[in-house]
Each structure stands twice: as C-alpha cells, then as structure tokens.
Specification:
By secondary structure, this protein is α/β, with parallel strands linked by helices. The chain contains 17 helices and 18 strands. α5 (about 95-110) crosses α12. The structure holds pyridoxal-5'-phosphate. It comes from Citrus sinensis.
C-alpha cells in the first residue's frame, strides 16, 4: 500500500496521441500525417515485396548473424577500409531507438563527463497546446515544399516552424541521453527566418564546444526539418571536428529516403570516414524496410583496430544483455536475407519509396500553387488544431508531416486544407 502513490502519469507520446485522435475520428476524409510509416497509395500499411520474398526464404533457416556485417557495409561502404580491416564494433539493436539507447549507455560508462550536443530541433519535437503558453507559428510550408523538388529534403517536412514556445517540449534524443544521465546541450541547426540551415551558427557552436564533445547528426533527411547540410558543408564540419577532437554520432533512420540512393544518403558519413574519424552510427530498418514492429537496428562504433573493436563489441553486448537479453530474431533474419541476396537487395532498392514520395511532394506543391497560395509571413496560431478539427487531418503539434501519409487520393484534399488554414 502506498508504494506508487507518488507516480504521476508520464507525458503522452506525441505521435501516439496523434494516432489516437485519428482513430477516434469517424470522418471518411481523415488523414494521418503523424506516424512516419510507409503506406500504399490507398493509405494501407505496406509489406514490401522484398520482405515477402525474404519471409519465404527464411522459413526454417538457421540464425546467420550476418545482419550486422551487411549493415556496416551499407553505411560505411562495402569496399571501405573499416569493413575490410574489421575495425567496426557492430551489434544488433532494437531498431534506431535501441541503437541510440545502447550508445548513450556506452557513453555513460566510458565518457560520462562529456556532453552530447543535439541539433535544435531534433527528433521528436513536440509542443504542448496553447494553454501552456502562446504559440506563434510561422507558415513556411510553401517554401519548404519548393525546396523539396530540389531533391534535398526529407520525407518528413515541417510545415510550420515554431518561433516562440514557452513550455512543455519533449524530444526523443534528449530523453534517450537524459535517461543515461549524459549532460546534454543543443547546437544551432534550423533558422526559421531563412528557412534553411543556420550553418554559421552551427559552425560557431562546434568551435565553442569544449574539445572532445559528442555531437549527434542526422546524416540525411533531418527529422523534423528536412534540412540537411550540403556536401561542402559536411566537409567543413568534418574538418572542424578534427581540429576540436569531437566525436560524431550519426543517427541514420532514413537511409535511401532522402535521395532514393543508399550511398548518396550516407555521403556525410563517408566524408567523415575519409577524414579518418572514429564514428558511431545508429541504423534503423523500421522505415527503410517497413519493419516497424520488428525492431531491427544496428549500432556500430569505429575503432583503431580489430582488437579494440572486439573489446568494444563485448562491452556493448554486455550492456544489451543487462537491458533486454537478446533481440527478437525474425526481423534480423529478414534484413540479413534481403541485404545478402543480390536479387532481393536490388528489389529492395527499387522499392525504396523515394520516387513515390518525390512525386507526391511535387503534386502537393503544384496543387498549392494552383490554389494561388503564397508564402504567408503573418504569425498564425492554431493551424494544426484547425487541420484536425475542420479537416480531420492529424499531425504533431510542431507541424511536421509524414509524406508517407499522403496518397494520390488525398493530396488534393490536403492541399486545399493547408491552403484554407494558412490563408
Ligand atoms: N532517429 C530518428 C531521427 C527518427 O526520426 C526515428 C523515428 O522516427 C528514430 C531514430 C527511431 O526509429 P526506430 O526506433 O523506430 O527505428
């Protein structure tokens, strides 16, 4: 009696809250732009053909454990020296979140004094409703969508950027490292005025951080802004990391989604590799293979030699064992089957949805243009609420929309609704 009286409910998960509201809405026109889950053009969940074929192949097969090996090739390049020399300590992880969590715990054990720096904003930003303070949101949708056609931008786009928030903001990255008791800070990333990367401020933050700090980057398809550094900017960042001795940790949740090309989306990591950084990387197959519920991911840490890699691998495995024992194997078998079978791998690459998403972005933009929408610089409140109440369209309060929720069938309706609430 009385043991748990002091336990108050935790803050609602922003994405789950959106899905709950969506499910409760009886409207036939409703759209869920919250969860970044792959959907077919009718909005139904998709099982990729490569996954179906892998399912047939793995029936009754032994556990191969090649998933880590193949994942490391995917991110660092199959011909890279780190792969050839066995200098990566890789372990299976419970999807991208689990890989981040394992790394945070590893950092706590071996570098507890170093800060971790996150981009501002980072996954997943959530702003509480206006009862907590006055929210001023700036419509930047039109310009962001314009950028999208330049092939640079994420599947997740932020249509409204919050410029003044008074309280109650949750971020997944922050939560993960906070639970590992790592001191955290942010670095400048998105500039709401220019609606682009605040590169000068980002570089200043890198220079002003204490030497040997840890920095988390989204290597492509930054969530939630969709804004990524250019190749040249990544080179400058990598150079400055050498000067400062910082540690780069890449959270790769969308490889293949930004450009439709797996190698191109890993370009930032390859640049750091050329500059001989020791890198950490979290990989997720939740989105890229549509395996959300299987929780397949990989954590890899580059080392000076294979001996160090073996030591680090054993430490991470020990952390994982104490947290959850071992990961479920079915999804791991699916991923390793797809990655190690050349036919299934090329089928997967064909299926990666970048093309369809690219088309949807263009159509959405064209529809808005046809409606005569123009960039509205007024400070406007409540667009997200109006989209839900009047148009049955659900998204997180920061205005991030998952393009995976847009279909050929609902794109006109969506464009109309956005135009209405941003007039
Ligand atoms: N990292 C980023 C940047 C993300 O956007 C997400 C999911 O939205 C994740 C990690 C976690 O993905 P999962 O744990 O489902 O693989």
């Amino acid at each position: 009696v009385g043991w748990w009286d002091h336990v108050a409910p935790a803050a609602k998960d922003p994405i789950n809250g959106v899905t709950e509201a969506f499910l409760a809405d009886p409207s036939p026109f409703k759209i869920n732009l919250g969860v970044g889950a792959y959907r077919d053009d009718k909005g139904r969940p998709v099982v990729l053909q490569c996954v179906r074929e892998a399912e047939a192949k793995i029936a009754g097969s032994e556990f191969l454990t090649k998933m880590v090996e193949e994942s490391v090739k995917l991110v660092y390049g199959k011909d890279s020296d780190v792969v050839k020399e066995g200098r990566s300590a890789g372990v299976q992880a419970l999807s991208g979140t689990g890989a981040c969590r394992l790394f945070a715990e590893f950092q706590r054990r071996f570098h507890p004094e170093s800060h971790i720096y996150f981009p501002d904003p980072t996954w997943s930003k959530y702003v509480c409703s206006s009862s907590f303070g006055f929210l001023q949101v700036l419509v930047q949708f039109f310009q962001v969508v314009k950028c999208l056609s330049d092939n640079e931008i994420d599947v997740q786009i932020s249509i409204f950027s919050v410029i003044e928030v008074q309280s109650c903001v949750l971020y997944s990255h922050h939560n993960i490292w906070r639970d590992a008791q790592i001191p955290e800070r942010t670095y400048h990333y998105y500039d709401p005025d220019s609606k682009s990367l605040d590169f000068a401020a980002l570089m200043d933050d890198i220079k002003n951080a204490p030497d040997s700090s840890f920095f988390l980057f989204h290597p492509s398809a930054h969530n939630p802004t969709g804004v990524d550094p250019t190749e040249e900017q990544w080179r400058e960042i990598s150079y400055q990391f050498k000067v400062k001795g910082h540690f780069p940790f890449f959270d790769m949740a969308y490889q293949g989604f930004a450009s439709g090309d797996l190698d191109k989306d890993a370009q930032a990591i390859r640049i750091f590799l050329e500059d001989e950084h020791l890198i950490g990387c979290a990989q997720s197959y939740a989105k890229s293979m549509g395996l959300y519920g299987h929780r397949v991911g990989c954590l890899s840490i580059l080392c000076v030699d294979s001996k160090q890699a073996a030591a680090i691998r054993s430490q991470i495995q020990q952390i994982a064992r104490a947290m959850y024992g071992s990961p479920p194997v079915h999804g791991i078998l699916l991923v390793e089957t797809i990655l190690s079978d050349p036919n299934l791998k090329s089928l997967w690459i064909d299926e990666i949805m970048a093309d369809r998403i690219q088309r949807k972005r263009t159509t959405l933009r064209q529809n808005l243009e046809k409606l005569g929408s123009s960039l509205n610089w007024e400070h406007i409140t409540n667009q997200v609420d109006r989209l839900a109440k009047e148009f049955h369209i659900y998204m997180t309060q920061d205005g991030r929309i998952s393009m995976a929720g847009v279909t050929t069938g609902n794109v006109n309706y969506l464009a109309n609704a956005i135009h209405e609430v941003t007039r």
